Amino acid sequence: MRRLGHISNVDSLVDSAPAHIRREVKAVLQALDKAIAAVQPAKLLHDKITVRGEVFRVGGRRLNLDKFDEVVLLGAGKAALGMAKAILELLGRRIKRGVIVVPYGSNVKMLDCVEVLEAGHPIPDTNGVKAAQHIIELAESCKENTLAVFLLSGGASALIPLPADGVSLEDKIEITNLLMKSGANIHELNTVRKHISAIKGGQLAKALSRSRVVSLILSDVVGDDIATIGSGPTAPDVTTYTDALQILERRGIIDKTPSSILTRLRRGASGEIPETPKPSDNIFKHVTNIVIGGNFDACRAAASFMRRSGYRSMIVSSHLEGEAREVGRAFSSVALSVERYGVPLKRPCAFVIGGETTVSVRGDGVGGRNQELVLAAVEKLADTRKAVLASLGTDGIDGPTDAAGAICSSNTLRQALEAGLNADDYLRHNDSYNFFKKVGGLILTGRTGTNVGDVAILCVGD
Amino acid sequence: MRRLGHISNVDSLVDSAPAHIRREVKAVLQALDKAIAAVQPAKLLHDKITVRGEVFRVGGRRLNLDKFDEVVLLGAGKAALGMAKAILELLGRRIKRGVIVVPYGSNVKMLDCVEVLEAGHPIPDTNGVKAAQHIIELAESCKENTLAVFLLSGGASALIPLPADGVSLEDKIEITNLLMKSGANIHELNTVRKHISAIKGGQLAKALSRSRVVSLILSDVVGDDIATIGSGPTAPDVTTYTDALQILERRGIIDKTPSSILTRLRRGASGEIPETPKPSDNIFKHVTNIVIGGNFDACRAAASFMRRSGYRSMIVSSHLEGEAREVGRAFSSVALSVERYGVPLKRPCAFVIGGETTVSVRGDGVGGRNQELVLAAVEKLADTRKAVLASLGTDGIDGPTDAAGAICSSNTLRQALEAGLNADDYLRHNDSYNFFKKVGGLILTGRTGTNVGDVAILCVGD
User: Fold this and answer.
1) Per-residue pLDDT tens digits for B36-67
2) Predicted confidence (pLDDT) at residue A3 exceeds the cutoff of 70
3) Cα dist. B215→B45, B161, B219, B418 in Å?
4) Residue in B closest to A337 by C-alpha
5) Can you tell me the distance from the alpha carbon of A68 to that of A87, in angstroms, rounded to the nearest whole number?
6) How far A196 CA lies from chain B's nearest CA (Å)?
7) A423-436, pLDDT tens digit by residue?
8) Is the separation of the CB atoms in A349 and A313 below 8 Å?
């Protein structure tokens, strides 16, 4: 068998699959591997950036490196290390200093002359605050003739938290929890957070206002909105202090909001403290935000591999959000229409979806959104003859587990019953990890060094 | 404008749509109308059945009417009236007697020599019990040389409830409520109900065991399983009393189960009372169950109309189930991928889904599953340029409202904001009906005389 790059247990997953769907299991796992490979930061940056002599080209922009005294590298996110390595290869010794912030566990202190700091994720911590201060200080030290390259990827919101004056990290964490419990969506969450932060919502761009800024952004956000990815440190913010207050009001949590936050938002709304930088702000004339890759790149690689493997293939959506179990059920229903009516495609065929689902935790089990999506499909796929569904997080980490995701097939329900397991019970307890640990089907990758959300593939064999 | 058959407010919906998406709104509404027209019982029966001289052909079967002394017509369901009319046209005076059961409000007492009874739906009542007794008596009066034609459509489970000996209608209603609240799925619900009924789960076929039986079935069930539609009065039952007891146990409601039901199930499990007829039972040699139409027919008509109207078209699934709001969000996300990446289809294009979603009611608003599905899409469609989404129940009745469903577009969120309405709040209160009543978008049909579940169309203009 072809050696795969990221998924470490392909052989055992293929071997343990029932013979009649082994081909589909293998194709799906290989396609997911291709999806991860396609969004490796190094690959994306080398694809999008060329440096010839002193000319740096990226995203249709052309910068003459001669014009700058120095290049400073800043960055934060789950993919910062891989992105920094690729940029160092491209720009080499032109980079004189820099700092990037990554989750704990990288075991790297320096990359050439770039400091590598570690901080808490997904819960922000004081090391993150220190790292963010370090980034702002470095940014403010940049001059007119500095080219600042900022590497942004998912996870940055938590990795470089910088509470605004008078607000504590604890208050920020508390309001985030209150908002999430109240059902606030990502836009509401970010509107509030940007107005109690000293780095989010374009404020890093403000700190860099004397310099030329190029932000290279790997998107983990559905829709790739640059104001949302990592809370948009170098992107204009269209929201206001008044918006933030209205959200707290509408979500019914204004009475529970920490007073430091309420004071700041009210002072901001009355004009006592400056707004976050708006789209019309002059500072953005010197800023170029470029999304170098996102979920669609991963989906495209997966669909393209399935097509080369002989399956009619289609990306159904790379903008999926919603409750994982519901997405799993809806997606798996497509296999029934394929087998029964030959729609939307005739067999053999494959469907790719991408995005990022969520799990409303009700039970006390262990799992992740991808594993839960797949577990929710088990019952419906039992009514198919020859279907396989797999889903994984491209960062290799699905919930608080050591799995990236899971795979199931037409046979999984039967296998579970034979093992005395009730799939429905595991789903009710949000215990997808233990279900697949017992039945088989966990996909293992370890950290992949990238992060563009989730990819799922449904394959129906002939 | 072309006159439409079923949707009564097309003109006003088209006129009130923003000019740039008027074409899409019109096409989608016309396509939904075609979907309803394609599954009218008369049309389906005339398509599937031919009577030439004394030869009756249906679904590949050939019956010689000469061989029978009489044809008896039985039936129940929301589409029973339309089905009966069509059969009377086809078989005419050969039908000597019969009875069909329909929901209140038909205002018809007799169709030729066929009695029309009315009963409660969706809550069963004593008129339903009497009607079911009447059907069983008529069935038992059929002889060797009788051809019994049974017309089955959605709603029959409630319209002809016949509690088994010793079980009261109240007990049946109570256990149904207990099961539904415990999260039981349709299969679990039916397993229990078939074992406390004297008509469900093949027991009508048993009452007709001396005769030749042809069941003509209009499916409102996702997947068209004949044992599930109307609880399968003429279909073999693979479930047992023991299964039923295990379900009550597993759902944790065995202690609350009415004692009459518990007694019956335990006696059944110990062999004291006979099982429901199983697939191997001889009675089914004389029974032909034919699904004359279902959700896919409606989806196909809708997709085909959209194609003729110039939109690349695709049925994504006619097997959709799940929480309405989640399906709405997932489905609308496809429009974003179309506009941004040209996948799964390039503009202009349309996607059709069918099935039947559910709503977990949390708020105290008014709505239906189709209206809620559409409301949940409003926010996502606001990020599109030119998309329209509509969903309706093919029976014309969406929840406890006078609407069949609703339609929204890229502009609906803006219209709502201008009217001071927060779409999210209405969704949280399950108040989709009042949202669309205020913003516009309710689709009105009245009862359509058919019932094959729901159809939704997403259209992205050029």
Assistant:
1) 999 999 999 999 999 999 999 998 899 999 99
2) no
3) 12, 18, 12, 53
4) B317
5) 17
6) 25
7) 999 999 999 999 99
8) yes
Percent of chain B with pLDDT over 70: 99
* Cβ pair B344:A314 closer than 8 A: yes
The residues of B whose Cβ lies within 8 A of any Cβ of A are: 183, 222-223, 250, 296, 314-323, 326-327, 329-331, 333-334, 336-337, 340-341, 343-344, 355, 380, 383, 422, 425, 428
- Residue A82's alpha-carbon distances to A54, A86, A232, A448, B165, in angstroms, are 23, 6, 20, 10, 72
pLDDT in tens, A82-108: 999 999 999 988 999 999 999 999 889
Average pLDDT over chain B, rounded to an integer: 95
ipTM: 0.87
Separation between Cα atoms, residue B276 and residue B258, nearest integer Å: 21
Which among B312, B326, B340 is the top mutation candidate for probing chain A, defined by the most A β-carbons within 10 Å of its own β-carbon?
B326
Quickly list DSSP for B87-150.
Answer: HHHHHGGGEEEEEEEEETT----EETTEEEEEE-SSS--HHHHHHHHHHHHHHHT--TTEEEEE
- The per-residue pLDDT for B4 is 57
Q: Give per-residue pLDDT as tens, A205-262.
A: 999 999 999 999 999 999 999 999 999 999 999 999 999 999 999 889 999 999 999 9
Test the A interface: residue of B243, B319, B339 with most A CBs within 10 Å: B319
Taking the C-alpha atoms of residue B288 and residue B44, their distance in angstroms, rounded to an integer, is 17
Tell me which residue in B223, B333, B422 faces A320 most closely, judged by beta carbons.
B333
Nearest Cα to A380, choosing from A311, A441, A326, A418?
A326
Cβ of B266: how many Cβ atoms within 10 Å?
Answer: 13
* Chain length of chain B: 462
- 3-class SS of residue B232: coil
Q: What percent of chain A has pLDDT over 70?
A: 99
- Per-residue pLDDT averaged across B329-343, rounded? 96
Nearest to B344 among A316, A321, A327 (CB): A316
- Is a pLDDT exceeding 50 seen at residue B188? yes
pLDDT value at A182 more than 90: no
Which chain A residues have any C-beta within 8 angstroms of a chain B C-beta? 183, 222-223, 250, 296, 314-323, 326-327, 329-331, 333-334, 336-337, 340-341, 343-344, 355, 380, 383, 422, 428
**Rounded to an integer, what distance in angstroms lies between the CA atom of residue A121 and that of residue B2?**
59
Query: With an 8 Å Cβ cutoff, are B333 and A314 in contact?
Result: no
CB contact under 8 A, A330 and B333: no
**A-chain residues within 8 Å CB-CB of B189?**
none
Q: What's the pLDDT at B253? A: 95
Instruction: List the single best residue of A313, A317, A345 to mutate versus B (max B Cβ within 10 A).
Output: A317
Taking CA atoms, B236 is separated from B157, B224, B281, in Å, by 16, 15, 8
Q: How confident is the model at residue A4 (pLDDT cuts 50, 70, 90)?
A: low
- Whole-angstrom Cα distance, residue A83 to residue A86? 5
Q: What is the pLDDT of residue B415?
A: 96
Decide if A326 and B321 are in contact by the 8 Å CB cutoff: no
| Extended beta strands in A302-364, E state | 312-320, 349-355
Write down the pLDDT at residue B182. 84
Nearest one of A218, A263, A171 to A42, comparing CA atoms: A218
- For chain A, list the domains and their CATH numbers: 10-39+295-460 (3.40.1480.10), 41-162+197-239+276-293 (3.40.50.10180)
Strand order in B442-443's β-sheet?
B312-320, B349-355, B454-460, B387-393, B405-409, B442-443
**Contact between residue A381 and residue A412 where contact means Cβ atoms under 8 Å apart:** yes
CA B13, distance to chain mean position in Å, is 26
Q: At what angle do helices B259-269 and B241-250 cross, to 10 degrees?
A: 130
Contact A333 B326 (CB under 8 A): no
